[in-house]
Structure formats: C-alpha cells, structure tokens
Amino acid sequence: MSNIGIFYGSSSGVTKAVAEKIAQRLGEERCDLFSMEEDFVDFDEMLDYDYLLLGCSTWGSGEVQNDWRDPLLDLDNDKPDFSGKTIALFGAGDYKAHGEQFVSALGILHDKFKARGATLVGSISTEGYTYKYSFAERDGKFVGLGFDDVNEADKTEERLERWLAALEESFPVAEEA
User: Fold this and answer.
1) What keywords does the record list, in alphabetical order (predicted)?
2) How far is Cα of residue 2 from the mean position of the Cα atoms in its chain?
3) Separation CA 66–CA 51 (nearest Å)
4) For residues 35 and 51, what is the distance between their CA atoms, to the nearest angstrom?
5) How far is CA 148 from CA 78, 102, 125, in A?
6) Where in 46-155 does DSSP place strands (E)?
7) Beta bridge partners of 98
C-alpha cells in the first residue's frame, strides 16, 4: 500500500487538478488519491496512511467545500485519534469574490485535525498573496498551500513548488532511495 493518502473535495475541479499535480510530483505509485465525494468511506480509511494531504476549497463565508461538510460532522462525533499522523493541507480560494475569507477552510481543517492529535506541516508565508482576512493565517503564514486559480492561475505552479519544498523536512516529498 502507498504511504501517502491524498483526500480532496472539489466542486469546480480546481482542487482536484492540484491534487493530481501533487500526486504526480510525489510519485503516483506512492500516493492514493481519494475524492471526498466519490471515494471517501470513513476516517479509518485515512488512518491507514502515515502521511495525509487534505485538499479543500473555501466557499461562501469561509466554509469548507460541500464534500467535506458531512465528514467533518462525523469527525466531531466519532473523535478518531490522528496521533502519529502527519498532515499537510492545500486548497483553493478566490481573493476577489471572497477576500474576506480567503482559503479559510484550511484553518477549519487544521484545527479539527490538530485537536485529534495530528501533526500539521506545510505552513507557508502569506507574502505575495492578496486578501483581506483568512482563518487559515497563523503568525504570518497560511497553515497550508493556498492558491487562487480564478484570479492568479499564473502563480499556482510556483506556489505549489514552494509548498512542496517547505514540506521536505517533515514529509516524504522525494522518493526514498
């Protein structure tokens, strides 16, 4: 079995496309890719992996993408233990239409999984981003990779590379020899 599970929710396909790029960069043979809408069964499935990448776009007034809503309610009710799991987050936002809550869904995921013992990695600087507020911002950094393919698609690739480089210390980014 692969040791990296990538679980994403995607309404318009943007977060899915980035999830697929991440799997390619990390090595598709090392990653299992799951749509939260089509493939997700329960959190025991996630607990089978040592490393998790969780993708979720932000909708409305800082809400998680629809495919994550019911699973997060289950997470609150079942309270699975994610101790010993390393998690990195990524997700899409739209700074023009929702700059007052840019990529805030990542902050929600961060807090939910941290409260269950997970180690969260992959924070990146907010420098170079345009937005008014984000629940995903902590101490001048986003808790994961935020990107805006609606207004700044030309920056997504560079941001992805910078984020993957930031993961190197605590996440198996490169294939082990």
Assistant:
1) Electron transport, Flavoprotein, FMN, Transport
2) 18
3) 23
4) 17
5) 33, 9, 15
6) 51-56, 58-59, 63-64, 86-92, 119-121, 124-125, 137-138, 141-142, 145-147
7) none
Q: How far apart are CA 13 and CA 26, in angstroms?
A: 20
Task: Give all domains of the chain, ordered by start, each with its CATH number.
Answer: 4-168 (3.40.50.360)
In this structure, what token pair is assigned to residue 91?
Answer: 């997700």
SS (H, E, C) 69-97: HHHHHHHHHHCCCCCCCEEEEEEECCHHH
**Tens digits of residue pLDDT in 53-94:** 999 999 888 899 999 999 999 888 888 999 999 999 999 998
135-153 per-position pLDDT tens digit: 999 999 999 999 999 899 9
Cα–Cα distances in angstroms (integers) from residue 56 to residues 141, 174, 175, 177, in the given order = 18, 23, 25, 31
Which amino acid is it at 68? W
Partners of 64 in the beta sheet? 58
pTM of this structure: 0.93
Exposure letters 52-70 (e unless 16+ CB within 10 A, then b): bbbbbbbbeebbbbebbee
